[in-house]
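User: Structure tokens for both sequences below?

Assistant:
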Amino acid sequence: PMLDQTGPVIIASTSNTDWQSTNRLTIKLSDEKSGLSGYQITETEDEPSSFETIAGSEYELQKEVTESKTYYIWGQDNLGNISYKKVTISYIDNEAPTILSLKEQSNYGATSLITARVIDKDSGIAGYQFTTEETEPDSWISVDSIITEIAFTYETTEKATYYFYVKDSAGHITHQQIVVSKIDNEAPLISYEISSSSMGENGWYTSLNLKANIEETGSGISHAKYCFTANESCLPNSTGVIQNNSITFSFTGKNVAQNYA
């Protein structure tokens, strides 16, 4: 009589050579002596208590695996001999990158800097893009499968809603949006009016209050400096007190007769 004291021969292979959402595990079992009676796939090295029933001297099956982990493939023959093979599955990434933050600079400026912080610990970051279009971009700025936390920046001169897109090496894409508002590249508008006055002889003012109205719709008014001169220009060196977006200057006596610039 022929002896059979060994379990089935198990051969396992995977399909992925790069990152995908799944990985196909192909399993081939064979037993040329007593023949096959069952198989099982587990995630631990503990011998299974039950087997899926199969028959014949050869058997092949495929399993779609959705997680990167170690599997144990078990085979049993008709005499109860059991063998197993340990297989580590990799190159599986079924989650998009994580956008940790998307922020605009805190201070106003002629331009604004957007900073996005992202991470993808599986297949890694493969590309990103900043755009004003909500639709997925046609072109990407490529990076080399970065698996650590990383920041990407974009500088703009336009107030708008911006969309930050990022993708990983497995092709998963995610995005967030941000409204950019910290841009001010226009100076305040200033207009003047006589708020009050007293007339003297020959059309001369004896007193005059001149009000400078300041219109600012961007970053706001931080301070105002001024000077008065009878010449063409002067260097502002006096700080004005702003109240309700305006400054009032008072002139009396001889000063009122001067032609100030």
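Moving on to the next sequence.
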Amino acid sequence: GNVSENISTNGIIVEDKASAIDFEFATPNATVNGLNTYTDAVDVKVTVKDLEVSSGIKSIKYWVEVDGEKYHEYESFNFTIADPTFDQLVFEKVVDLVITPVEGAAKNYILHVEVVDNAENTFTDSREVIIDTLDTQIGVKFDGTKNDRALEGYFTSRTATITFQERADLFDKNAAVESISVYAYDVNGEGDKIARGENTYTVTWISETAADNGDTIYTAEVKFIAEANYKFDINYTNLATRNSKYDSTTDANATEG
């Protein structure tokens, strides 16, 4: 093991044991693929212990890795006593850290903590989390087949093509389908939310394509079957618990007729 000279006591400490590094993360919003998953900055308490036969903690630094690059790097503790007594050595240190996310993206963040003791032994440990700061991108396009013998704006059939764009491991297809609420109204403006079914409206997944940023675009077709005026909204929560909404009443292309 490495040797630390304790000059003030005319002694030496021989040490080769790793410092214990303990991570305590804030309660996650969810767990995805075994990783704590959050929708905002993450508080972390790191406890470093250099116990038993020990030369004491000399320095602690940490950095955050995103996409293989160092995103943040800090030295959070540095022991500066040049000729310490044994009683002056630091054997335990608690450091409060914050993982600050890249805005507008769902990323994996790896927190690395490096501890160096006074015998110049170096120990490193790391933990990985997911932070999703990006709302699911929801797109809607309407297609219809006009009945030429009817008044303008009436259709014999009409569909809405809905796209959900986000990171594949955060997407929940079942939740996406359930997030679509359809409301049917008669000519007098009376109506209510209707249940999905073969006689009202159907939702069918038709494609999955890759987006330029690495996300996946999931496309569903909503077919309106019953005769009615329709409005609908989408209130979708992904696996990271991030909520995204779409309201057809604010869209000039919303289906009516």
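User: Anything stand out in the second?

Assistant: Residues 146 and 155 are 5 Å apart (CA to CA).
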